[in-house]
Amino acid sequence: MEEQGRRGNVITVFSTASAVGKTLVAINMAAELARLGYRVCLVDLDLQFGDVCNYLHLVPERTIADAQQAAESNAEAFDVIQFLDVYKCDEISFSVMAAPLRIDEAYNMSASAVQHIVQRLQFRFDFVVADTTSAFSETNLMLMDMSTIITFLGIVDFIPTIKNMKIGCDTIRSLGYENGKIRLVLNRSNSKTKIDLEDVENILGEPFYHVLPNDFGAAWDATMAGVPLVRNADTALARDLRALVARYTNLEVADEAGHNNGMSWFKRIFN
To answer: Cβ(8)–Cβ(125) under 8 Å?
Structure first.
């Protein structure tokens, strides 16, 4: 039975702000892990407005909404692989679980169904990379509990963005996760701003784990071509995305890193 096998790692890409590059980072994480030889599935959990397939120029035949319906109809016969598309580009190949195609399908997705689907994926892949929406929803909180690593992505542009980043960091820390599970990653580090990075790190209470440079041109070209940046490390952004994945894969993480003595996120956040 697949439930007796080894569980793959879950990397969640999260932010408290929209338009910070979550989807770009998630896609390139998945692509780089695949380039390194890992079995990878990228799951689009921005359920209402997911853009993973748009970025990769994929037209999905089935989505996570179809997977939920199949699992609820016949749990014993449910095969998660049947609901995946495959992205290929040169030596890079990874699976993709698409977001729902319609708003009503997204609205009817349940956190328990997403949990069941992600767990099934863990038994089939070395890494499950999840792109998420910018909200502390029930689904996202459940996913954080399951995650080996939470990539908290931020940018330093406006005061409200930094305020929301601070609130998000404090909220995640209050959940009682072990040290090293939450990784603060700064995107667009050299974009034009009068806000000092050191001041932001003082506000957050820790330095950024990794810093990605601003390269709108390279990101735009890759998105328009439907090709991950890490396919060729010919830009600073591509090299730093590769370096981020290298840091993740060089760390040994326990299979149960996402568990916290059985205490749910709900109890931890309100206790």
So the answer is: yes
What residue ranges do the domains of the chain occupy? 9-270
- Positive or negative, the CA dihedral 86, 107, 148, 3 is negative
* C-alpha 218: how far from chain center: 21
Residue 177 structure tokens: 């996760």
- Model confidence over 244-263: pLDDT tens digits? 999 999 744 433 344 444 45
Those residues with Cβ within 8 angstroms of residue 269's Cβ, 6 or more apart along the chain or in another chain: 141, 171, 174, 175
262: Cα separation from own chain's centroid = 23
Q: Phi first, then psi: what are they for 124, rounded to 5°?
A: -115, -15
pLDDT digits (tens, 9 = 90+) for 124-135: 999 999 999 999
Task: Reply yes or no on whether the pLDDT at 90 is more than 70.
Answer: yes
Q: What is the per-residue burial (b if ≥16 Cβ within 10 Å, else e) of 233-256?
A: eebebbebbbebbeebbeeeeeee
3-state secondary structure of 161: helix
Q: How many residues does the chain have?
A: 271
Alpha helices in 101-235 (DSSP H): 103-107, 111-122, 138-146, 159-174, 197-204, 216-225
| Topology of domain 9-270, CATH | Rossmann fold (3.40.50)
CB 99 within 8 A of CB 44: yes
Phi-psi region of 213 (alpha: psi -120 to 50; beta: other; left: phi over 0): beta
Which amino acid is it at 153? Answer: L
Q: Helix or strand or coil: residue 86?
A: strand
CB distance 152 to 235 below 8 Å = no
